[in-house]
Design a protein that fits this description.
Elements: H1 3-15, H2 18-25, H3 29-43, E1 48-50, E2 55-57, H4 59-84, E3 91-97, H5 99-104, H6 107-116, E4 120-126, H7 129-137, E5 143-147, E6 155-170, H8 183-187, E7 190-193, H9 199-211, E8 216-220, H10 224-232, E9 238-241, H11 242-245, E10 251-269, H12 276-288
Parallel strand pairs: 3-4, 3-5, 7-8
Antiparallel strand pairs: 1-2, 5-10, 6-9, 6-10
Length: 292
């Protein structure tokens, strides 16, 4: 079977529709449809049920999807091992991190790594921590910055640093004078929050669900500068990390009571082969991404 067609098939199965899969793959939708048609002809089976609004895998398609993922992971492992024979002067690392961590914690570290290993390419994939963990399990990432307090049994983690989730309010807000704030009090305010699936949203959503509180969410965004601007303009209060909110003019960071710690570290799938470049990157992060 053609490896490229298998990769296309798995992307469609994961995306759930041809349009999104074609966009992710960077090809035209007609070309993707033709590739899947040829794959079905090659295996002699109908793999996808197509309707106007959705697509689903047939029973035969589900069987192929399971094996195709294993095949593609094995191919990727082989490519990594072959690349290792050339040393770590070259190589590609699929690395995942949230957009916030990428913007505030990684720029200087990534620049320093590239200076030491200029031939190594790093493909940075930005997503929420829950999505990153699943991408590690699916073999789409070599390494990712993930929460170490919610590690999966198939993922090995090395803790790098611990942050703390804080409430973020305008300096003129009545809560700004408080030394701490409870989630109960926070959840009763108008809110500007990260989207679901991100750790800055998780504690708030979980508490609201358990307490059966209906949140007054005025705006949702994963853009941290926009979020801070909205808080400054009194659209609502939000959450943030201590490093990001440190000495931010016009904003006050208030610890939660009880506090909400956030241990972060480097994760990789236990059964996933780490290339020499990935191992060098892992060691470099452990040496240089330790926050006080």
């Amino acid at each position: 079977m053609d490896i490229k067609r298998l990769r296309y098939f798995c992307e469609i199965a994961s995306a759930g529709n041809f349009t999104q899969a074609a966009s992710r793959l960077g090809i035209a939708q007609p070309a993707l449809s033709m590739a899947i048609k040829k794959l079905e002809e090659e295996v002699g089976l109908k793999l996808i049920n197509r309707t106007e609004r959705q697509m689903t895998l047939t029973a035969d398609g589900q069987v192929l999807f399971k094996h195709a993922n294993l095949i593609l992971e094995a191919v990727q492992q082989a490519e990594h091992e072959i690349q290792d024979l050339k040393g770590i002067e070259t190589g590609m690392i699929q690395f995942g991190a949230s957009s916030m961590l990428s913007s505030y914690y990684l720029p200087s570290v990534l620049a320093a790594f590239k200076q030491r290993y200029p031939g190594v390419r790093i493909n940075l994939i930005e997503a929420g921590t829950a999505s990153l963990q699943q991408m590690l399990l699916d073999g789409q990432l070599d390494l990712a910055l993930v929460r170490t307090d919610k590690a999966h049994e198939q993922i090995r983690c090395v803790e790098l640093f611990e942050e703390e989730v804080l409430a973020c309010v305008p300096s003129q807000h009545p809560l700004a004078q408080h030394r701490s704030i409870t989630l109960e009090a926070f959840c009763k305010e108008p809110l500007v929050l990260f989207r679901e699936g991100y750790f800055l949203r998780e504690a708030v959503s979980r508490y609201a669900k358990e307490a059966q509180i209906s949140l007054d969410i005025r705006f949702e965004t994963n853009l941290i500068d926009l979020l801070k601007a909205l808080v400054l303009n009194k659209v609502g209060i939000s959450t943030g990390l201590s490093m990001i909110l440190d000495e931010e003019e016009g904003l006050v960071a208030i610890p939660f009571q009880p506090r909400i710690p956030l241990p972060l570290g480097l994760g990789w799938k236990k059964s996933h082969y780490l290339s020499a470049a990935s191992r060098a990157f892992s060691e470099f992060l452990q040496e240089n991404l330790k926050l006080q």
